[in-house]
Amino acid sequence: MTTIDEQLDVLMSGAAYGDPQTKENMRAELRERLIEAEKEGRPLRVYAGYDPRKPDLHLGHTITMRKLRQFQDFGHEVIFLVGTFTSLIGDPSDKGEARDQLTMDEVEENAQTYAAQAFKILDPEKTTIRRNHEWLSGLTFADVIHMASNFTVQQFLTRENFSKRFDVGAPIYLHEFFYALMQAYDAVALETDVQVGGQDQLFNILVAGRKLQSAMGQKPQVAIIMGESLPGTDGSEKMSKSAGNHIPLMGEPWDMFGKVMSIPDDAMPIYHKLILGWQAEQLAELEKGLSDGSLHPNEAKMRLAREITMIFHGEDGAEAAQQRWDEVFRSKGDGIPDDIPESQLTEEKKVLDILRDLNMVSSGKEFKQLVQNGGIRVNSEKIDDAQMTLTPGDLPAVVQVGKRKFVRLV
Amino acid sequence: MTTIDEQLDVLMSGAAYGDPQTKENMRAELRERLIEAEKEGRPLRVYAGYDPRKPDLHLGHTITMRKLRQFQDFGHEVIFLVGTFTSLIGDPSDKGEARDQLTMDEVEENAQTYAAQAFKILDPEKTTIRRNHEWLSGLTFADVIHMASNFTVQQFLTRENFSKRFDVGAPIYLHEFFYALMQAYDAVALETDVQVGGQDQLFNILVAGRKLQSAMGQKPQVAIIMGESLPGTDGSEKMSKSAGNHIPLMGEPWDMFGKVMSIPDDAMPIYHKLILGWQAEQLAELEKGLSDGSLHPNEAKMRLAREITMIFHGEDGAEAAQQRWDEVFRSKGDGIPDDIPESQLTEEKKVLDILRDLNMVSSGKEFKQLVQNGGIRVNSEKIDDAQMTLTPGDLPAVVQVGKRKFVRLV
């Protein structure tokens, strides 16, 4: 059986709070809580919340899930909290955007999609899914005022996200303060022992949540704040859908494999660490192999892509994705895989229009740039004329966009 | 019949907003609103709100009531809004103070007491009393968030009350921001044309109320912000119960009369202006009389005290108060009025304890200071020994505290 100190080492790994003293305190509190729970013969209640307004999770979200999984593996109770309340009320700053407010059915559908993605990492048997509109929608103005009385405006303005805007005079809408209160109340409603979140949740979890729990007579939760965030496919910016550098969990295996293959070599160690959970020793070996040339970066990345794809798409999905990759980039022939989609061409048509009709490029501008960069090939030859046309007489022909998009015209 | 411009002159008199342009704007808006209401054959809906947590109003509160009365006299509809919601939720900053939260019955009793005081100035026939818990207690967290999304934190921090505290680093509790939102929502719920308030309401009425009304599709109310506030009996600080310089409306006629007599001579003009509603011409005459010696300050003050007392206690109350004043301060004899309360003394007792048991002094410290300042007399003689006792053998005796408190010991 795992000792409490062994649990502690695993559970605190990767947590960071901006200062070492807070980490010490959190470790001490978690230790005490583990001892207490063991005495009482109960598991800890651990949760993390996820915003269901954009239902497609990406690899960056899995860092907190992996932490939740560690708690599960030690027998603790995990609550996967879907932040349905915000979806139901919408973002009131978007005045014109009625669609920002979801119906109960849409919210429930998103919650299900969400959970399906999360269960690639979490153990469904040991996970409870909760939705925070259950308790937040019943609160009255008076309840909100009582909650708010535990906080000063100044405390909120210390939050990095707000203080930066305040310093440059950018507007902070009053209701934005409420998101921290909501999250704080989630902790109260769930009577949690531990909350897990990313660095952007530091204030909500460590300050707001703990303070409100204390004010309401509960023992304040232990905050596990993940220190590192996953860079996107560009290797530098934090992965996010809005930055366009994300790797979605629910895409095709081939897409996930290819996107992992596209990360810069120097991002490999952090992907191994945060997504595969590699420990310091393994990471050191990886870095050593890469630097002394005993490990080829491409080989390492291929193994990484395969392992990550396997988590979300299983052995078969990963195998198929890798085979396709091999076909495209390692074949001695024309580099064109066999199983590409076909399309009919019945009259003379510009290559631009063919690709646009197939949604393989989104605009004439994008197409032109691709041509300039040598990104469009017809039968493996780069084209340099953006006005080029194809006629039925040229068929069959294979048009390739970038490295991985193909169509066979017949 | 009064013309709209005549109404405007009266209704805008005494209003001030910190800058002349806003006053011009408000005057123009009020003019437009008066014309519009006349066309539609309806009165304007005008309101002011009063906090019922401390049910004793004082003279300072009557300035806004006098303004409401002016609207009534022109035929407009006045709503006397009792801020019951805050009483029902209590002030959440006072953690330990359960008593700060009132029951529905207490709130209703305060509201009645409040109205009784207000009706010394307002016409009860033309006044509707409303209580804001009716609409505020039904709001949900989602409603509050939508309301709050119309405001930025920075807008709230421009409010004088907050900006000063912010500048010196004094805490501003988050729920304090809500008081402006509540008041803003009152205006929405009442669909008001005009709201009247003091300078401390400038932000709540002119910024928050108008903005929320606009956001909710209503025409923003005209703000009538009274420029001057009444100084207390010290003649310098704004009248307030907490400063201890207030003249309560519901005390004895004698107490009101005496307290007005205690104001410094140079506070007389503003009392005439704000409480009796004297116009510039009359005020100039008063000041002239006082400065050229043709009017004795004491005589002027006596007339002021009598007129103010008459408003709240009628002709008879004012008459009785004045007679008593004359007896005490003008009698050639011992200066002790006839109709003072009696109390029995059956054993030797310190003067301090006698007065403390009768609630005529509140502490030994206060008593000592009074003795030092010659404020305690026994049978018209100042005493200088704070330990002095009286025995049944000394009776009957009259003990006097300050100028106006007496007890006859028998």
Automatic annotation (TrEMBL), chains A, B:
It catalyses: tRNA(Tyr) + L-tyrosine + ATP = L-tyrosyl-tRNA(Tyr) + AMP + diphosphate + H(+). One of its GO terms (cellular component) is cytosol. It comes from the Bacteria. GO terms for molecular function: ATP binding; RNA binding; tyrosine-tRNA ligase activity. Keywords: Aminoacyl-tRNA synthetase, ATP-binding, Ligase, Nucleotide-binding, Protein biosynthesis, RNA-binding. Residues 338-406 form the Tyrosine--tRNA ligase SYY-like C-terminal domain. InterPro entries: aa-tRNA-synth_Ic, Rossmann-like_a/b/a_fold, S4_RNA-bd_sf, SYY-like_C, Tyr-tRNA-ligase, Tyr-tRNA-ligase_bac-type. GO terms for biological process: tyrosyl-tRNA aminoacylation. Its EC number is 6.1.1.1. Pfam families: SYY_C-terminal, tRNA-synt_1b. Belongs to the class-I aminoacyl-tRNA synthetase family. This is Tyrosine--tRNA ligase. It comes from Phototrophicus methaneseepsis. The lineage of its organism: Bacteria, Bacillati, Chloroflexota, Candidatus Thermofontia, Phototrophicales.
